Amino acid sequence: MTGSITDVAGILVGQHHRVDADATLGSGWASGTTVVLAPPGTVGAVDGRGGAPGTRETDLLHPSNSVRHVDAVVLSGGSAFGLAAADGVMRFLEEQGRGVALEGGVVPIVPAAVVFDLPVGGWACRPTAEFGYTAARSAGTEVALGTVGAGTGARAGVLKGGVGTASTTLESGVTVGAVVVVNSAGDVVDPATGLPWQAEDIEALGLVAPPADQIAAYADRHTEFSPLNTTVAVVATDAVLSKAGCGRVAVAAHDGLARTIRPCHTPLDGDTVFTLATGAVEVPLDPETPASMSPETPLLTGIGAAAADVLARAVLVGVLAAESVAGIPTYRDLLPGAFG
């Protein structure tokens, strides 16, 4: 176990970004793309809770619609312009023969969601189809963290945001993992304590209470409102789930965002979570499940709870790993005392 979404066998992550060392707010490159490749036969769904989403192919993932399987998910910077990165991923997958097989060729299924990072670098410096193609071609089991991929220009309140990942394995043998791009209008840190809201993870992350003067200085910065917004994520599991079951897991996973980002799901955020189920591990369904319920219900309860847990941890991992870009301070910059 590496503690990443790629602990779900068959899931690969690729990232590509461009960042100028001398980038300042509003000038220079500071954006990128993160791609999650899924093995053949992976079922997908999505749940969006923010008021300002930027997405592609999400309607296709509704349980009432025809296509069940997803080939990849794209998370990208560049606002709606960045959705073009999915074109490059489709090209890569077509070259591999992946997609819905039709007379004359294949059509890869590549849903996507974007974050609004345009004011960080130059407005015209945003991911293209080549970003998606390059990210997909580089996909592997190692997941870089922080200021990489779609997290390059990300911001979390007044702090630098970024890419984070986490995973867990349940007693049933099912693995659940998440990768997230944290670019929230809300903060991940309590201005009263200088520590992340997710208090139960503080010790595990090696953090301690920072000195009072650092907390006060951070609280002053906390009053600066950031127009940057949207946290996007992919949760993956190796369990056998239906399309509707994947949708329930995506719903539950949003609790992980609410635990770590405050406020969350605002009118300014496009918070979107995708769920992928590879179907490699089949867990016997509980025969005692009432006939009026879906037989998946007991299984989904545990997977949904795990999805919220790993997504919450991934948010913190991404913010703590972030390095400064365009003068946006990191958690370590503003609260170095939290590291002991």
Describe this structure in words.
It comes from Mycolicibacterium elephantis DSM 44368. InterPro entries: ArgJ-like_dom_sf (IPR016117), Peptidase_S58_DmpA (IPR005321). Keywords: Aminopeptidase, Cell membrane, Hydrolase, Membrane, Protease, Transmembrane, Transmembrane helix. With 340 residues, the protein is α+β, with helices and mostly antiparallel strands. The protein has a single domain, classed as L-amino peptidase D-ALA esterase/amidase (4-Layer Sandwich). It is 23% helix and 22% strand. It has helices at residues 85-95, 129-137, 212-222, 243-260, 297-321, 331-334; strands at 12-19, 30-37, 43-48, 55-56, 72-76, 100-102, 105-107, 112-114, 155-156, 159-160, 162-169, 175-182, 232-239, 272-281. Strands 1-2-5-8-4 form a 5-stranded mixed sheet. Strands 3-14-13-12-11 form a 5-stranded mixed sheet. The longest helix has 25 residues, at 297-321. It is globular, with a radius of gyration of 19 Å.
Give the C-level CATH assignment: Alpha Beta
* Percent of residues in β-strands: 15-25%
Under CATH, the topology can be stated as: L-amino peptidase D-ALA esterase/amidase
Number of domains: 1
Alpha-carbon distance between the two ends: 27 Å
- Please tell me what the overall shape is: globular
Give a quick account of the main beta sheet: strands, pairing sense, barrel closure.
Answer: 5 strands, mixed
